[in-house]
Design goal:
With 274 residues, the chain is an all-alpha fold. A two-stranded antiparallel sheet has the order 1-2. The chain is 57% helix and 2% strand. It is built from 9 helices and 2 strands.
Amino acid sequence: MDPRDVQPAPAPAKRPPALDEKVPPPPDHEIPAGLEADLAPLHPDGQPPDDGTDPYHRDSLQAQKAFDTAVEAADRGEEEAAVRRFLTAAKLAEAAREWYLAALAFQHVGDFLIDPTPPSDLERALRMYRRAVDAFHRCGMVDDARELSFYLLRHQLPRSRELKLPWPRRVELWAYWLVAGFGHRPLRVIGLAAGVVVLFGVLYWANGGVVAAGSREPAGLWDCVYFSGVTFATIGYGDFVPTPWTRPLALFEGFVGALTMGFFVAVLANRLRR
C-alpha cells in the first residue's frame, strides 16, 4: 500500500521539549534539502524517474517516496502521522539497502518515542537508536554513528531506574562515562592518569616512602610526584626507589598505569576509527 493512502492523524498539541534537563538533546540530524536514495537512478533533468523505468531501482524509489511523505507530514506538524510514515520508510529503506534513509528514519522515530510525554516508549526508542547507529555504520557515516551511540548511552544514565538496569550495570555506565566518555573521550583518560600520578605522589610523600637511590635521603613532594610518574609509566629510571613498606603500593601503581595506558590506546583507536 502506498504510504500516501494513509489518512494522517489530527495534529497533536505542541509538545514540551524532547528531553528533561538531565540529558543532552539528541544529535541534530537535519534532513538535507533534496535528499535522494543512494541507489536510485540519476535524473539530471530534475524530474524523478518513473518507478517502472528499471525494476532494479524500484525498491529504492519506493523507499524514497515513503521517506519524502514522512518528511512532508513532519513539516506540517503531524507528528504521530510522521512517525508512522517514518517507520514505513525505515522498513522499505532497509529492504532496499538504503542505509542513510533508514538511519534518518529510525532516529526520527527514536526522538519521538524517547520524549517523556505520552506516547513514550523508552525501550523501543533505544532500539530505534541502535538500528540507526547500525545503519549509519553500514553507509560509512562513522562520525554520525559515534555521535548517536554516545547519546544513546548517555541517555541511559538518568533513566537507568526506568530501564530497570541492575546496580552493577548502572555503576559500570557511570564509571565508563566518567573515565572515558563511553569510549569516545580519550582526553578524559589522560586526565585520569594525571590524577592518579598526583594522588600516588602525595601518598608517597606523606609516608616518606621514596628515597634517593644513592644518599637514601627522603624525597620531597615534587620528587615523589616524579617517582609516581615514572612508576605509572613503567619506566623506572632508578634515581629514586621506594622504601620497603611502600613497595606494594608502587607495584600496584605500576599495574594501574599499565592498564590505564592500554585503555587509553583502545579509546583513542575507537575515536580515530573511520
